[in-house]
Automatic annotation (TrEMBL):
Any Pfam family the entry gives: Y_phosphatase
Protein name: Tyrosine-protein phosphatase domain-containing protein
Chain segments annotated as transmembrane: 245-268
GO MF term set: protein tyrosine phosphatase activity
Lineage of the organism: Eukaryota, Metazoa, Ecdysozoa, Nematoda, Chromadorea
Domain Tyrosine-protein phosphatase: 31-267
Amino acid sequence: AAKDAWVWHRITSVAPGNALVWEKYKRGLPVPYTIYPCLDATRVHVKEANNPDGFYHANWIRPPNSDQQYILAQSPNQTNSEDFWAMVFQERVTCIMLIRHAQEKEDWKAYYPAEEGETKCLGRYEVVNVATGKFNFRLGKNWEVAARHLLVTKDDGGEPLEVTHLHVLNWEKYDCPRVWHELSELLVYLRDVKSVRTMLVHDEPFTGRSDTVVLLATMIDHMDTLGERTDLEAMKRGTFERLCLGRAYAIGSLAQFIFCCGVMQLYFWERYGQVPDNHVDYPRL
């Protein structure tokens, strides 16, 4: 895909030292969070965060002409889990997608109750695991997802928040999921059946997995807004540029971008029964 060579240039030039950061990270060298910036123009301001600036490492990604919105966030830990739930509660997030392989370190367990019936109290927020593994969506054998239904309440007695929590367990760092149809079908299901309007996605920094999900979701939203009139080439570039302008170090590899383009193209074929002009055989790349 020579015509997509601009993508890799865009990835490595979006911020100073970007390529060096990824190289260090892939080789297992330490990369301090201080060089992983949170772009101020799009960051989520958490009014009740435990710091004077309302800071949590998270950014908004909003597709044009759509009521969908996405938050790309840093995974919470034991020190900022209360701020994480303050953000979720403030923005009325109804779906959280956590992408961590089952063999990766388990620091993510600090912020939610993993077992059904379990409760976690995190500062002013109580999180109850109402149900586990009862997600009403058919997932293929290559798509391993743990589903939880969480109920979040705040100590001020306000209305509780119901959250669908999805943990993707078999997606390797820097790689693409071993599914083509299931991911797009899942995103459409969350939007159209579960009526999710604000979705938060997080994983380990620099791996590109959460960015891949949000890029594909914004592509689908954009296509469904324009329908058959969609210019796929312009949409592909536009959504990627929007992602890069909204979140620093977006997308961890060229393969992840190619994956999104391939799924997007298949989605267009199936939705509108048309073969796009200048289409690419992405599954063979």
